[in-house]
Amino acid sequence: MSGCTCPGVRRALALLALLGSLGGRGCWGSDPGSGELEGQGSRHPRGSWEAALRHKRSWVWNQFFVLEEYTGNEPLYVGKLHSDVDGGDGKVKYVLSGEGAASIFTIDENTGDIHATKRLDREAQAYYTLQAQAVDRVTNQPVEPRSEFVVKVQDINDNEPKFLDGPYMAGVPEMSPLGTMVVQVAATDADDPTYGNSARVIYSIIHGQPYFSVEPRTGIIRTALPNMDRETRDQYVLVIQAKDMVGQMGGLSGTTSVTVTLTDVNDNPPRFTHKNYQNTVLESLPVHSVVARVKAADADVGPNAEMDYRLMDGDYLGLFNISTDEETQEGVIVLLKPLDFETKSSFSLRIEATNRNIDSNFLSVGPFSDLAVVKLTVEDVNEPPVFSTPLLKMVVSEDARMGTSIGRVSAHDPDSTNSGIRYSIDRNTDLERFFNVDALSGVISTAKPLDREANSVHNLTLLAIESREYRRKGIALITVLDINDNAPVFAIDYETLLCENAMPGQLIQTISAVDKDEPPSGHRFYFSLASPVAGNLNFTLRDNKDNTASILTKRGGFRRREQPVYRLPVLIVDSGSPALSSTNTLALRVCDCDADGVAMSCGAVAYTATGLSTGALLAILGCILTLLIMVLLIVTMRGRRKTPLILEEERDIRENIVRYDDEGGGEEDTEAFDMVALRNLNAMHARRDVTPDTPTFFRYPPPQQQATILITARQTVNLKKKRTGMASKGFGASCLPRTPAFQKCDSVRFDTDF
C-alpha cells in the first residue's frame, strides 16, 4: 500500500508501493506485526537490511503533505491507502480514525483515497495524527493491524509581520550625536520560520527621514542627524515597516509608529527680556511685601530652566531681598525694612539670574547667567506721627501725690508738612484713670493715689494724633516704686497644740511672717511678745534671726481643766523706713497627748460624775422624763383655762365702765398731774391670776394702792380744770373689783382725751 501528496498516475503509485515492499524503503513504513511507522531508509533493530525482508509487509504509504489555505471547490486529494491483502474483490474495507477523521479528513472505504474537506491553517494546527486500518467488510474484523500516520500541513506565506509592542514611544536627548540609539522595534511573523522565507523579516523606515534611520535586520532606530534642537522641534513620528520574504517582491508587510520625543538638556542660558525695569512703590508699603517681580527667559524646561536670583552689591542690601518663585521661576523682590521718602526716594537694584543646573557639555554656549537693573521709585504718602521712643519706661513712687509729673512722651510728623501732634491715653489700658497726659506737651502725670500692692506695673497705650485718619500708638510702662505701707502679719493661721505633759523649754510652734511690701534689700522681721505678756510665766519667744521665731514653754504641768486655751500676743516689726509693726494673737490649745506627743483630745474637760452604775443612770433618766411629762400636762391644762377667763374679763369690762362728764383742761391737764402714774396703770391691764408669757421689767402696785392711784388722778384733773377754766373733752376710769371699796382690782382702765 502506498500514498502520495499529489494526484498522479496510479501505475506510478503501484510501482512505488512495490519498490517499498521489496526493498523495505519508502517515505514511511509500518511493521505489520507492530503497526508502528518507520522512517524512509530505517534499519531493523538488528541492523540488517535482510532482516526487513523476513516479514512480508502487508501495506506501506508515504507521509502525507497538505497545503494550507486551499481554496478549491472540490475536496483536496491528500493520498491513497492500499493493502496487499486487498484483492480488489471488495472484501476489504478501509477505516480512518484520529484527529480530524470524518470532520476534516475522509477516506473512500473501497479505494482508500483520502481527501481534506476543509481549509487548513498551519498557524492553527501544523499536523494531524491519524490511524488507518483494513477490516473484513462482512465480519468487520481487522485483516491488518492498526497503524498511525501523519498528515503535515505545508506552510504558505499567508501572514504579514506584526509589531506586537507597537505603537512605540521613545525619547532621546536633544543635541545627541549622529547614530545615537533611540529604540529597537521587533515584528513577529506567524509563518513557519523553518520553511522558506515566509518568516524572514526586513525593517525599513517609511516616514521619519532624514532625522532617523533603522537597521534592516535588528530593527534598531538611530539618529540620522546630529544636534537636533528640542527648542526648534521636540517630537517626531516615525513609520517603520517590517516585510517578510527577506523584503523580496511578493512579501507581506506590516507597519508601526514610533513617536520620538527629544528630551531637554541645559543648552540655553537665561536671558532677561529687558536690561532695565521701572517700578513704583509707596513708602507706606508694609515690611515683607512684594515690591516687584522680574523673570529671565530660558528656552529650556524642567530642572534645566530653574534659576537663582541675587542682588549685586549696593546700598540697598538689607533693605530689599530677592528670591525665586519655584512655580514661575520669577525673581520676587521683597521689602525688608520700612521705606522713607524723606530719606531716599529711589533705588537702583542690580539683579543677576543664574541657571541652577549647568551642563558641562554645553559650557561653550554660556555664560549661563544674565544681569538686569530694576529702578524703584518711592512715592510719598501722608504718614502717621512717629514716636521718638516707641517704648517708654517710667517709674513713680507709690506715695506720689495726685498731679505728680512722671515723664514726657514725644512724637513728630515725618512728612515735610511737620503738622502738630496731640497726645492722649487709650483708656482701655487705664480703666481706673490713674494717669493723665497733657494733649500738647505730652507730660504724663498721676491722676489719683497709687497702690503698688494692687498694681505694680501700668502698661499704657499712648496715642499720637496728627488728624483723625493719621495716628500712631506708643507704649508706656510705668513701674510703681514700693514704700513701706504694710505691716507684717503671720504667714498662716496657726493652729498650735500644747500637750499637758509638755516639759519646760519645749518648742511648741515656729512662726513666720509675710509683708505685702517688697523692700529692695529683702524682708527682715523682728519677733517679740507684746508688752502685756512679756513677763508671763507660761511661754517665751525666741527670735531665730531668719524671719522666723520659736514659741517655747517656760513651765510644765498644763491642765485643760484649769485653762483649755492660751492666747499669746506676738509683736512683729519689719525693717522698713519707717518700720511698721503689728500684733498677732497665737492661740494655743491644751491637749491630752500620748507618750509620743500626739494630741488625743483638746479643749475644755466636762466634769462627770463617777461611780454610778448603769441602773442608777437609767433611774435618773426615768425621773427626768417623768418631770418633763408632768410639766407638759400642767402647761396644757393652764392653756385650756385661759380662754374662758379672758372672755369673762371682757364681759366684766363692758359691765363696769364708769363714765365721768367732767370737762378736762386739754393740754394743760397733761402738765397738771404725773403721767407716769397713768402709764403705770395702763401697764397693769393684765390679770393678776394669769402669769404673763414674757417677763416684764416693772412691778404691779399692791391692791390697796390701785384705788389710791385712781382717786389721785381724778383729783388732779379736777384741780387743773378749776385753774384753767377749761373743760376736758373726756375722762373716764374703770375698775374691775373683786371686793368692795377697790381693795382688789384685776385691772384699771383710764379713758382720757386732752
From TrEMBL:
It comes from the Eukaryota. One of its GO terms (biological process) is adherens junction organization. Residues 83-163, 164-272, 273-387, 388-490, 490-600 form the Cadherin domain. It is found in: Membrane. The chain crosses the membrane at residues 616-635. InterPro entries: Cadherin (IPR039808), Cadherin-like_dom (IPR002126), Cadherin-like_sf (IPR015919), Cadherin_CS (IPR020894). GO terms for cellular component: adherens junction; catenin complex. SUPFAM superfamilies: Cadherin-like. The keyword Nucleotidyltransferase does not apply. Pfam families: Cadherin. Residues 1-29 form the signal peptide. GO terms for molecular function: beta-catenin binding; cadherin binding; calcium ion binding. The keyword Transmembrane helix applies. Keywords: Calcium, Membrane, Repeat, Signal, Transmembrane, Transmembrane helix. PANTHER family: CADHERIN-23 (PTHR24027), CADHERIN-7 (PTHR24027:SF91). This is Cadherin domain-containing protein. It comes from Gadus morhua. The lineage of its organism: Eukaryota, Metazoa, Chordata, Craniata, Vertebrata. The gene is cdh7.
